[in-house]
Amino acid sequence: MNTPPSKPWILGLTGGIGSGKSAAAHHFAALGVHVVDADHAARWVVEPGRPALAKIAAHFGDGVLQADGQLDRSALRALIFSDPEQRRWLEALLHPLIRDEIANNLAQAQSPYAILVSPLLIESGQYSTTQRILVIDAPQALQVQRTLLRDNTSEQQIQAILKVQASREERLLHADDVLVNDSDLKALQTEVERLHHFYLTLRGGQP
């Protein structure tokens, strides 16, 4: 009788805005690792026709909907970043739905380990579902510079996002591994490959 393959262990991958966590995740995926993105799960649970979107519109009003019925993220973001109580209301609604979506997606993994990418891995408590944590770290000035180049947003909004995200120090306290991404994409990919080969030697995420 064949023994069933062991269940993949879960690596939590996180980093502040503009740290390069998405680029790192893409390279892990290119190496054949099953990657689940918490941001994608968060988008999926508020798609038109899903119950969460109707509840958000009922609570905040139709101003948070676009003409086509999709969620207007920037309108919602403006409301919740200026009001911690509204942000807590939204998190209480969405976090359990996102958690279920992530768990269902991770359960489909066929690779030796799977990755949960989340900007709020530490803050949301999602790290408790992982066996190991990789933090993509970058100096804050570089995070802001990269985000300004990438997104059509203001430095003020980036600073507001940085305030909501865990501090670098807090993230690094939780980290099993740290990848400092202060160079170019090639250097990042080389580090990802090095970590990938190391992770393939682990059982359950621990040496």
From TrEMBL:
InterPro entries: Depp_CoAkinase, P-loop_NTPase. It catalyses: 3'-dephospho-CoA + ATP = ADP + CoA + H(+). One of its GO terms (molecular function) is ATP binding. Keywords: ATP-binding, Coenzyme A biosynthesis, Cytoplasm, Kinase, Nucleotide-binding, Transferase. Pathway: Cofactor biosynthesis; coenzyme A biosynthesis; CoA from (R)-pantothenate: step 5/5. It is found in: Cytoplasm. ATP binds at residues 18-23. Belongs to the CoaE family. PANTHER family: BIFUNCTIONAL COENZYME A SYNTHASE-RELATED, DEPHOSPHO-COA KINASE-RELATED. This is Dephospho-CoA kinase.
